[in-house]
Design goal:
By secondary structure, the protein is an all-beta fold. Helix content is 0%, strand content 61%.
């Protein structure tokens, strides 16, 4: 019996999203599953936003993987999106309502 390898990377820290956004890409070809966690550090009133997971073979050309999730709407709330069977690279993209904003911390948890 072996222990599965895991790793958690902070891919965005204290980032302000007030329009369309994309996180830094992360190479994760060794992993078999991944979970993006988004925690709200600050949010404007009546905030609303959606994130989509994207995958890439080269970290340059991206395609939607199919997973979507709402962004957190109150301070310290956490939302997540999980994926399996992805290529070598991962990121999330999305957008927020006009004149609304969120300051977020985004972590990517990977497991072999």
């Amino acid at each position: 019996m072996s222990v599965r390898r895991s790793y958690t990377a902070v891919v965005e820290r204290n980032v302000l999203w007030d329009r369309d956004f994309a996180t830094e890409p992360y190479e994760a070809a060794w992993a078999s599953e991944a979970i993006f966690f988004v925690r709200a550090l600050e949010v404007s009133p009546e905030f609303s936003g959606i994130a989509r997971v994207q995958i890439s073979a080269d970290g340059i050309h991206w395609v939607d993987e199919g997973t979507t999730f709402e962004l957190p709407w109150e301070v310290n709330a956490v939302t997540f999106g999980r994926v399996r069977h992805f290529g070598g690279w991962l990121r999330i993209v999305g957008g927020v309502q006009s004149r609304r904003e969120i300051r977020a911390l985004v972590s990517l948890a990977l497991k072999e």
